């Protein structure tokens, strides 16, 4: 057994790592700064563009004699039985440890955006569906399960969550985001981080920062965000997930802002992230992003210069495989082109994290998961139960004007649409069957994914259900319209199941690299819906999508409309449960639903001139606002009151004064006045009538989901602090300004129920990283 100080778990981690670094050669230190993607194909169709060009051949046996920083996607590259995969990973780790002088294994990382991206693992709803739940506690529970499954097979780091705030819904990766509001993204994303980290898995925040603000909604396009948009919309979710969630890793974005790629921006990755926010974990590159500094951004002449720029900016680990941080970097250091201190800085951060994970300890292998313990179940009944609850809570009832829903149990139903009988209609592009499984058609999906058609037949066994596809998801043929119209005309109600096919880089209508020119329904699905509505039979529109689509064309013409954002493997039963009435819908929109397909980009966070007005013939007002969602029961909000620092009560037209460092509590009672149990979501918005810079007309600063039995009531209190009104002022610093404010308790961004009017008094107050980031709530039963 080694007696070296770096092996002594009783010593502080910093002392252990300092001792270890002093013993390492330059090549051994750089070996800690890259991953290897040993399972990635170097010919044929890979997962992503540039994969073949970037995956350089390497001599594995020779490479690992120097040690290794990371192992890339042992489970997420090709279908592998989880038990066999765990054994293979454990063997690879022992080989790495045995080959190097120091016996240190690699950090194994995997994707885990909508569940562990592995064959046979639970496919949970996508993040946009998490946002629709407005339920951080349930998201945290899901993430803890994902983390435990990953650790059970030897994975240390998860590349999730995505904290990009939607700025243009035409962007292909909207399905991977949590929504269009930074407070919602921050609170839900932070809950995910807490859950994943609670299982001992390193959460990786991505994509830092600005990726979703790319021009024209094009993947990897330059970011046109201004300094205030960047500071007040893009950055807050990351700050919250670091400060409150404890995320231990950050992934730099592919994009460039104002001419500077994020992967080469020391002001972002060092100045802001580390010096201002105090982050001490690891910064990893998005896949191939270090080499992209040369090949795509053209700010570097060769791999060595790419490495120098990325290291100086603050990227500690090159992923997914060695390209720039290997021999090119070693040669650049030896010739004096790159200071060795940059290598030492990055290696120290990597080794500190390995120390946290127990990978520097002598007994790391004995404390690793037992790969010989037998079968591995990554899709347990408990997992599926959580996936079902998430899916059910995420379904949004957009409209039900005539009470067509719930469907009668013995009715004649014509199910029409290209998404009704396809299991993949439930999954986003980072679920294993969509992400990797489509490249291996010979393999089964590995998990049970009921289709909506099958689930609806199970929900309503006495109903007469017919089905026809009507059209393809993205095709141009209308040859199936005639049969679809016939089936609808023969039925009492038509359920039109339309939406997206998720995929990667043009292989879908939604997903990474699948950006769209407008928000028309894909292909000829809009025409199919027109034909069905024209029959006169009530049409229930069910959307299974990765983004919102323009629905104004059918406003007032549908019997009902239901929105589900890729609800995962249990999504079929969840949506069918809403249609049958077994599930009372409670989801709320995390993104606005536009009225028309053009006039984009648009999200609800708009200053006055971003709203409808006489200066433009384009009206951007959405058909369904952020936060909107219906129910099969009714709720009333009553007994509204507010209390300031001095105990003054304010409501209605009263104006209460609090200091620019003061607080104000708002309370109301929510009562279920209907005949069945259900959940309501009370949302708190801030309106700032006058400020030194233009502000969004309203923005979310708090929310509370509350579940109530028939007749039950609960009292909800929001504890607002003036810090939540802060914004980036003319000075470039975040400030709280004196003046008038309105706090609006609302059922959506546009459906205000109660208003409290405040006046902030005192001086302008500059706030920093110690400011309050969230609005706490208290819920108690009412007698």
From TrEMBL:
Belongs to the glycosyl hydrolase 3 family. Keywords: Hydrolase, Signal. GO terms for molecular function: hydrolase activity. It comes from the Bacteria. InterPro entries: BXL (IPR044993), Fn3-like (IPR026891), GH (IPR017853), Glyco_hydro_3_C (IPR002772), Glyco_hydro_3_C_sf (IPR036881), Glyco_hydro_3_N (IPR001764), Glyco_hydro_3_N_sf (IPR036962), Ig-like_fold (IPR013783). It comes from Streptomyces anandii. This is Glycoside hydrolase family 3 N-terminal domain-containing protein. Residues 680-749 form the Fibronectin type III-like domain. SMART domains: Fn3_like.
